[in-house]
């Protein structure tokens, strides 16, 4: 992966002697890998080697980033005339290229030698900073993204040069100690003295011959030489050059050979540019001329090759693109085929290869190196001096190693005078080829025989976590695993599978060991957890165990249970069973039990219990029966098999339910009941009980005995009867049979019930007369299964009356005040039923006529009416009278109903006409109403005035005043004042008029005067005025006497006192009357509230 042979820059055609090649400072850091920027100036070029073995030339201006894997300064190849120097400034090392001393010979290449450092691998350019087309063999640089953008190279690919000497990058820069440094200096001095201007490749011990790369990797006119120690200038078929000299030639011959080589290099560098002609869509003709010898006019013509071999390469990706070889041969023209139409191509020609050989006496071929010890990444080798070598001769050794996987052939791994070396940084379990080359100042020997040694393998990596393959069974499953990603460099010999039971178990048991990568784990327990892990064993040792795999085996159904056992004594209808869990639970807790029952006789089975309890009570059994029970358990996987059967017999019990009895009606009043013997349930039946009734829920025991039939009598026709039967034994009474209903045959209707006469109020017929009619009603009797069509009414000697389907009837055309015997019977299609009971009904006499109505007395608010004779005999009569009066709405309302012949109508209005009518009533009913009578109330007289007041004016004059009344309904009111003088027996009128006072004169001394007053209503009648005189007031006594001062005062006092007393008596009477009325009202209220309510 690393460029072990960085090429030298061409010294003639690219970089002049004045072009420096500088490197930027190494990027500071503590890591093993550091980045170096190689600065390429404008017009300069820098050559690197790509991954495919070809060399890339980068032209300036550019900065080429390169990675140093170990932080050391790489070997830098500089143009002719320049030498590199390493300087350190502030801890940063720089490589500076400066002009060489004047004695420097053109054509050679200076090499930086760093004896203290081991052989350095090639530097790695950053892929991120180089365009994609050129591919390099360097690995990516870690952290390249952190580099500043100013370091991104701006370059283009240019000419690519042939491969250079491989030893120039190794042996000459890798001296480890002072002895090797002295040997190098001695060899360099000798070579300078002998060759002068030879190339820098001669300053180091020669390398072993290497395999020549393919011609397809040659570019731009310079081919790769087999020696690879300098620039290949070409090879010819001329015999003047030959294939090389042996190491025993003299120094003069070597010098002559170098002169010839330079002349040939100058000749081949003058090859002309190819000429393109005859360009077609897919072909083109290329022609060129042989190399010109104009530059070598003074040279020997015999040294010019007679035949040249040419190589032509073309590129369709530009001048700096990748070239491919299209022709190798001796002709100077070629027709290029298989081209693309309308495509630009670049063509270049190359010369053939030339082989160079060093001269001098080299050591003999040493023996092959021997393996002392081997490790995973190292091999310790030992070799001996070549045979025949003097002990004091300084011989150095080059240990070369070939990694077949790299494809680069043998590469030097050690250069020194030690006879042992440990090769490190190797790949594990990899075959490497080794050979030893001995060299001294005269040259190097042929390589020893190649030996192969293999590094030890490392212990393998961790296999993958095992995985379950397929379905996980209850007692087995298959696991598989992948081999480790890292096998340690050797085949895996064996895999070991360990298993631990449980989730936290620390005990691991080996269950498999072998080369297969799958295993079937069997003989497991259902429902258990297992952890499995795998490790492998290879030649390098045992790997670490993989991550554990947790596998849960599925649970299976439980095993069979023990048969259930009887708990306690069996009962007639139920038994209690108990059981235990099965011995094998199938890897999962028991969650449910299923109990199945079946009878021996029928072999019908059913599940009677399912649950988690270990006992249950089985009910709804039959007494005296044998039952079989079996049990099964269930877990999350399902139910297991059934247990063995368990036989249990129930205790005897009451008989089974009888079958429904059979009923046969012999007549409408008789029926025969039959039944069968039921199952006795282990005990003989002792008796049967028959229940019979007309209502299903109210049946009574009608028979009790051992018989199987019973006759029922006294039944009603067309009636539904219900019956059921029950069997009894010593264990008890069995259940009743189903209820059976039967109906007796139809017959004539039953007796009519509830026959009665209707009163007048219950009869709604307008033509009904209680004197000539009788109304009766009855209830519908039972029709006994046949619809009632009508009724027959018998009411005496007359023919019976047949009526329809009614329940009331009015018998008319009868005699008044006559008694009748009435009975009735119902009729249907089967005939007439029996008569009902007889009732006596009597017609009423005819009602009386209405009497004459008269007004016996009247007033303004009352009317006293009179009718009939009014004798005492009449009061004892049964006739009642009904007096009615018309109201404001024109309807007659009842005023009085009774036997009296007079009635006083009160609370009437004065001068108003009222209409009255009357009717007489007796047992026969109400008679007709009389004609309407009209009576009018008179106008009312004024009310009585209060006693007048008398005021004395003088001895002969007094003034009388009285109460004032308002006009009555528009009629004016006047007053009349009367006086009675002395002992006269009559009052005389002294005033009549509208005034309410009168002054009376002409009084006599010591004479008594009595005054009274009344009001008079002057009625305005159409026929004339009419005065209605009201009652007079109470008289007032007045005695006239002479007026004397003292006496007069006393008399006046006496008179006033009399007047006051007269007035106070009236007031007192009124108060007493009012108190009595109030007391009466209170008594009435108390009686009403406390007594009546």
TrEMBL record:
**Where does the source fall among the domains of life?**
Eukaryota
Give TM segment ranges.
1069-1092
Please state where this protein is localized: Golgi apparatus membrane
Q: Per the record, which residues fall in region Disordered?
A: 190-261
Comp. bias intervals (Basic and acidic residues): 190-202
Swiss-Prot/TrEMBL keywords: Golgi apparatus, Membrane, Repeat, Transmembrane, Transmembrane helix
Q: Where is the Fibronectin type-III domain?
A: 365-458, 462-556, 560-653, 657-747, 759-846, 847-940, 941-1046
**Does the entry feature the keyword Cell inner membrane, yes or no?**
no
Question: What CDD domains does this protein's entry cite?
Answer: FN3
The membrane-topology field of this record reads: Single-pass membrane protein
Q: Where is the composition biased (Low complexity)?
A: 230-251
> GO CC annotation: what is one?
Golgi membrane
Q: Give the Gene3D superfamilies listed for this entry.
A: Immunoglobulins
What does the sequence similarity comment in the record state about its family?
Belongs to the FNDC3 family.
Task: State the protein's name.
Answer: Fibronectin type-III domain-containing protein 3A
